Here is the input.
Amino acid sequence: MRNAFVVFALAALVSSAALADSLDNPAGMDPSCKGHEQNRETYLKELEWVVNGGRMELIDELIAPEYRNNSAPPGAAQGPDAIRQYLTILKAAFPDRKVKNEMLLCAGDYVIVRSTVTGTSKGPYFGQPPTGKSYSVMGTDIYLIKDGKFRARWGNEDAMGMMQQLGYLALERPAFAPAGKPPDKNP
Amino acid sequence: MKFALIAAVAALSINAVRAEIPDKNSGPKGEAVCVGHEANRDLYFQVLDVIFNKRDLTRVEEFFAPEFKNHNAPAWAAQGPAAIRQYLPMLAGAFPDRAVVHEFVLCDGDYVIARTHVTGTSKGPYMGQQPTGKTYKVTGTDIYRVKNGKFTDRWGNEDALGMMQQLGYMPDRPPLTSENKEEKKEEKR
Here is the structure.
């Protein structure tokens, strides 16, 4: 019994150390979110365990029944089903898909994040056959989090850059772009 | 007496003006989330009005620091205030009625976070594509960093893919299939 507790306590320590590490900010931001530590940890927990770790069984614990993705395409599920549907589709298309936190801000009940999303096309995606190509794009998201649960999302990801890098879309560069440099890469 | 009446009418009309912009202070549900950061928030509102919507390019230096960096620009794009001078005329050429509409704003330290939607009608060439006359409306999510009263950084994304689809430059994304929905149901069991 006591051993089990020690193991549990150690695991908790290790996981909070991992959470703190993932806060290291490549953009050199000041550590933020004073007074909003619970929201920050809820976000990082969902990112590491559900989005990157694929632990779908934690979705109902972290996503409130009223969760609304304000940026979902028409016909998409809402509530915890939104996350289940979205991750299932993405995992089939990009089995190695990862989301890396680059910046994390807090304002009231809102957590604002910048992320890098990477993946390799191994399965069909929105009707397109896989190309075997990899992509790396940025996303900017705002989440409403309260009492350890996600309530809403407003966000955008560079979906056009993703489609270009995967070879699904080719666009010309505008006239002022110097020749010889690809127009479709995020720096 | 007359003076008091004028003052009362003036106060009322100020309130009336304020009432037209009820979301100016606030997050998506009307929360006051920029208390203590009003200067940063107001800088953002000025940029939205003067630069993004009225496109007064003579005032770019008032709001954008020489070291301004757009972290989402493609490699060939200009940086500093020149980034704005390059980007806005290009868009105005393609979409003369382009407007950036405020939805809500959040603040944290030196950062202002803005959610907007952008509308426009295709009247000129865009990224090598011919105008289609179609109108688009997409959302944008942006983070700005403010230092000494000027923007020094921007990180953000706009639904550029949705824009290209609505303008008719790209096929619509197919709806989520019943196959996807069945997979989802199985997982729930």
Notes: Helices of chain B lie at 2-20, 38-53, 60-63, 81-94, 160-166, 178-188. Chain B has one domain: 22-173. The first helix of chain B runs from residue 2 to 20. Residues 9-22, 177-189 of chain B have pLDDT under 50 and may be disordered.
